[in-house]
Specification:
Mean pLDDT of chain A: 88
Low-confidence stretches of chain A: 1-11
Helix content of chain B: over 70%
Radius of gyration of chain A: 30 Å
Structural class of chain A: mainly alpha
Shape of chain A: elongated
Number of helices of chain B: 9
Shape of chain B: globular
Number of strands of chain A: 7
Low-confidence stretches of chain B: 1-10
Oligomer: heterodimer
Distance between the termini of chain B: 15 Å
Structural class of chain B: mainly alpha
Order of helices and strands of chain A: HHHHHHHHHHHEEHEHEHEHHEEHHHH
Number of strands of chain B: 0
Largest sheet of chain A: 4 strands, mixed
């Protein structure tokens, strides 16, 4: 009798071990199949290809702001790697049904929920590959000499968690709806939600954080002291969501309710707690954004190079040599001593409060107040009339905008502040200085010219300043750029005081340099905003 | 029967008679349309409509540029479903029938085309009401037709190689890959341009070209039976 009682126990023990072995064998098999599935391979190629091109192609961005780049990597991971894993896992779960072999599988040693467990474990393979790839990307970016910002370890782990969540969703969908159309449609829905979340940033809503990605709440790069990114809490939320999906999948395929329901409750608790915790805004950071918008000096590091003071946010100091290069290239074109006093300075600004989203309106009062705040900050910090520069760098247009800021300082003797429109000889001279500095600023100037209408807008959209040059005067400056620099540069140096005088008309400039000038506008349409 | 007798006597086979093809088409139209896999197509069209319809209800009038993006996502959803029109579980049994293989396929695609046209009309009307401004309906329809035609071309290429009739399964991810590649196109040859962009008109010339190429690929892939091999004759 005892022998009969004991026998099933030993069989059961052996069978659990066998089942575990069989499950792990199936996991290995499915993991390899998932990794070498054509969709996975295509997704990783599509994910990495453009990124490699952005680093090595012409006009490559060598000055990444790490937190911003990590967000775009998360978005790409959700769209491509997550979407691919969703479809691949779904296809794997549906494979037996597709080939009408599900009845055969029921004869095997593994009960359905163990098989589901194997599929779910296999998702760790694409997730691990994602972690590896994203880590490699971040390391490559972090060793670039021009990188700015600090990277959060949790942010690097989020793409892998996204892949795990979407993979678990694919497995669950395969068990709920036995149609292969559901997985690609779900992937597209996630893409749409991601676009909406990115488009709705800066409206003050935080619901986008409930998506697998953790979007930024301002569409411009911010220094790390102003970042409100609860990446750790978001990772907990993703882990909770993945656990919920896993438990639901196991429950659906036959795990006993006695085990599944407590596990589901625990997973739901983690997901809800993490999801709720990440929605809480960090009030200290929001307050810091308001004060830093008006006075960034307390959180900046200043460096004097070659008699010029450069003040940058603590984690953006790697950009100072690049700014210095452009500044030198512009100063070289002006006669010695053109800067006058006070000595040249550069200060980084960030539009961290009141960034315009979807048609914000700004009157001249706000602009004037803004200019006043900028002057006060610069004066108090000991760098009066500092040239403003924003939190983006590395592309041609930004270089051209900064070069024109430097040129404005040289031509006008003061820094750009608020909205400023420059006309006449000084406008043409500014355009020439900005475009002649180096090849990047030249390319950027042409780009800004093709984007603007009415006036040439020399804007860096990460700062709350606008520098415009009247189109007719800008056209003369652009025509001067088409002439050989060896002819124009000596004339500019020789006639500097004339060219920087508000009395000099654009016709005089055109005849001095022998370039055409457009007909004078109707007095009714003349640009009234010109700065004196 | 007479044609068969003709080949027996060693004469050249009579020219294909289009009236016979039409008669066959009429006979098989209803069974073919009934046998097609409509569930994935309908699911895709439903989700596609929701892409435009849900934001229209939830957020009221929105930026036309945003509506254009949503319409493109709707076409993407519809495209994922269109490939399933090619699914034909009975393919191994119909391969030996004298009807050309493209004929039932063309009938199914035509049925799907009617459904898609109605869906697009409804989606466009909803989008027009949701947009705070005029939408370029003609250009957007061109994009939609081209998108569907690209799916048809991709699906027809897969269909040629599929012995057992499972096409949509492969066509859907393949179409997603094509869309990602198109989204990566450099500005010079971009297709998915934002609404009020200066290159909108030029981009739509490229859409027309894409439509022509995709239609040609679809037709050739569906009808061309390879280099004629020497037929075995009695």
């Amino acid at each position: 009798m005892t022998a009969v009682m004991e026998a099933p126990v030993t069989v059961a023990a052996a069978s659990t071990a066998t089942r575990r072995q069989a499950m792990l064998a199936l996991t290995r098999f499915e993991a390899v199949r998932m990794l070498r599935h054509p969709i996975t391979v295509a997704a990783f190629l599509l994910y990495l290809g453009p990124w490699v091109w952005s680093l090595t192609g012409p006009g490559a961005d060598r000055y990444p702001v790490l937190p911003s780049v990590v967000v775009s990597l998360q978005m790409g991971a959700m769209l491509l790697l997550g979407g691919a894993t969703l479809v691949v896992v779904n296809l794997a779960v549906l494979r037996e049904r597709r080939h009408r072999t599900d009845a055969v599988s029921d004869l095997l040693v593994l009960p359905p929920h163990w098989r589901t467990g194997a599929f779910l474990l296999a998702i760790l393979a694409p997730a691990a590959l994602t972690l590896l790839v994203v880590c490699a990307q971040v390391v490559i970016l972090a060793v670039l000499p021009g990188r700015a910002g600090q990277v959060d370890v949790f942010d690097v782990a989020i793409p892998a968690a996204i892949v795990a969540v979407l993979g678990a969703a694919g497995a669950l969908l395969g068990q709920l709806v036995r149609s292969p159309i559901v997985a690609p449609l779900t992937a597209v829905l996630f893409a749409a939600a991601g676009f909406v979340a990115i488009a709705s940033v800066a409206t003050g809503t935080t619901w986008g954080r409930l998506l697998p990605v953790l979007p930024d709440d301002l569409p411009i790069p911010l220094p790390s002291v102003l970042l409100d990114r609860p990446s750790g809490r978001h990772l907990v939320y993703l882990a909770g969501v993945a656990a919920v999906l896993v438990v639901l999948g196991l429950f659906r395929s036959g795990t006993r309710a006695r085990v599944a329901l407590p596990a589901l409750a625990a997973a739901l608790a983690v997901a809800v707690a993490g999801g709720a915790a990440q929605l809480v805004r960090d009030d200290a950071v929001l307050a810091a954004r308001v004060t830093t918008n008006d006075n960034p000096a307390p959180v900046q590091t200043c460096e004097v190079r070659d008699g010029v003071t450069y003040c940058a946010f603590d984690d953006f100091t790697a950009w100072i040599p690049a700014w210095e290069g452009v500044l030198r290239d512009v100063v070289r074109l002006a006669p010695p001593g053109a800067a006058g006093s006070p000595p040249l300075a550069v200060r980084q600004w960030v539009w961290s409060d009141g960034f315009p989203v979807f048609g914000g309106t700004f009157g001249p009062e706000e602009t004037a107040a803004r200019a006043q705040a900028q002057r006060a900050t610069d004066k108090a910090a000991g760098t009066p009339e500092a040239i403003p520069v924003g939190t983006m760098w590395g592309d041609d247009a930004t270089a051209a905008a900064f070069a024109s800021g430097v040129a404005f300082r040289l031509v006008m003797g003061r820094a750009v502040a608020g909205d400023t429109t420059l006309c006449g000889a000084r406008g043409a001279l500014l355009v020439w200085l900005a475009g002649q500095a180096n090849s990047r600023t030249a390319a950027g100037l042409r780009q800004l010219d093709s984007q603007s209408s009415g006036s040439l807008a020399l804007m860096d959209f990460t700062i709350d300043n606008g520098l415009y040059v009247d189109d007719r005067d800008a056209a003369v400056g652009l025509a001067m750029l088409d002439r050989p620099a060896a002819e124009i540069a000596p004339l500019v140096t020789a006639h500097w005081s004339e060219l920087t005088s508000p009395q000099t008309s654009i016709e005089q400039v055109a005849s001095l340099f022998g370039v055409p000038v457009g007909p004078a506008p109707d007095p009714a349409f003349v640009n009234v905003g010109c700065v004196r | 029967m007479t044609a068969h007798a003709g080949s027996v006597r060693g004469q050249s086979p009579p020219p294909r008679r289009w009236s016979a093809t039409v008669a066959v088409a009429g006979a098989v139209a209803v069974p073919v349309v009934r046998a097609a896999r409509w569930t994935p197509v309908l699911a895709a069209l439903l989700v596609g409509y929701a892409m435009v319809g849900v934001p229209a209800v939830v957020s009221g009038p929105s930026d036309p540029a945003m509506v254009v993006l949503l319409l493109r996502l709707a076409v993407l959803c519809a495209g994922l479903g269109v490939g399933f029109l090619f699914d034909d579980a009975g393919r191994p049994t119909t391969e030996t029938s004298p009807t050309p293989a493209w004929l039932p396929l063309a009938l199914r695609v035509a049925g799907g085309g009617i459904l898609l046209a109605g869906w697009w009309w409804g989606t466009l009307v909803t989008a027009g009401e949701a947009a705070a401004g005029l939408l370029p309906r003609g250009d957007l329809t061109l994009e939609a037709v081209t998108g569907v035609m690209v799916v048809l071309a991709v699906a027809a290429l897969i269909w040629r190689r599929s012995a057992r009739g499972g096409v949509g399964l492969t066509a859907a991810p393949a179409f997603l890959t094509v869309v990602f590649l198109v989204a990566l196109l450099p500005d010079r040859v971009a297709l998915l341009v934002p609404l009020d962009d200066s290159v909108w008109a030029a981009a739509h010339d490229r859409w027309t070209l894409t439509l022509v190429v995709a239609a040609a690929v679809a037709v050739v892939a569906a009808t061309w039976s390879g280099v004629e091999r020497a037929r075995f004759r009695i």
